[in-house]
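REVIEWER CHECKLIST
Item 1: Sequence provided? yes
Item 2: Single chain? yes
Item 3: Sequence as submitted:
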Amino acid sequence: MRYTDYKFHVPEEKIVRLIVDTDAKNEADDQFAIVHALLSPKFENVGMIAAHYGTRHEDGMERSFRELETIFDKMGFPKEGMLYHGASHKIPDKSTPAVSEGAGLIVREAMKEDTRPLFAIFLGPLTDLASALLMEPRIASRMTAIWIGGGRYPNGGAEFNLGNDVDAANVVFQSKMEIWQVPKNVYEMMPLSLAELELKVAPCKEIGEYLLKQLDEHANEEGPRNSPFRTGETWVVGDSPAVGLLLYEHRFEFDWVEAPLITSDMTYVHTKLNRPIRVYRSVDSRLILDDLFAKLALFQKKKEEL
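Item 4: Structure as written out by the authors:
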């Protein structure tokens, strides 16, 4: 699925296939990245996978799947052939996949004969990618993965997405797949204000109103409300760099770092045994967010013209 209702055109050779793997109901930021991906004409969206988010909710993957359905319905986009169930739990060990529809999608799309590059963005744990690699190791040379997760380099440390499947991260990092990693200190560079959302996003009717409403509701839940990282008027949409880096690569804002081994406490161990991965040290939050705001406004304008 590719949304192209703009006056500008993306050259054919710049179009990429995209898979989105998202723990969409874990928090309130995945929704912004999902909508951004759906509205970006550079992407041929070939499928969206609902991911688990650890033990916060035992049915987290199913909740994420229902959230994907809600977003598609509010945008008026067809769901058929686009939504897939990922694994409902982390992989049992580093040798055993958690087989799912989503892992199967990754394998099929990676092994497909298609000249357009394949990217998959992971907004939660790496369970479905690790499972796909264990199911079909040849996909490592046939796609690129962008992951929002992991602690700050060089030492690592506790981080939510990583903590939900450390074994999966080790499977991926020890593979030969090209990886772009956006660690915690970088994805935290994506703040926005709720007033900004009320002004720029909520007017985009059904989907815009929903983006603000669900974020405001989440920000006022007991746990997030008491977090020292929340101010009451701002939020961090930390998953959005996964989309933004495909729109603008930020070529001078990353380092090549040998993929570390990751211990059970999420510490990075640098052994020089793995190949280098791309680790970002900053992103242009205003470019990414303003592009989303513009696409939402244009999307609403087109709907009003119909």
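Item 5: Key structural point noted by reviewer: The chain has twelve helices and twelve strands.
Item 6: Recommendation: ____
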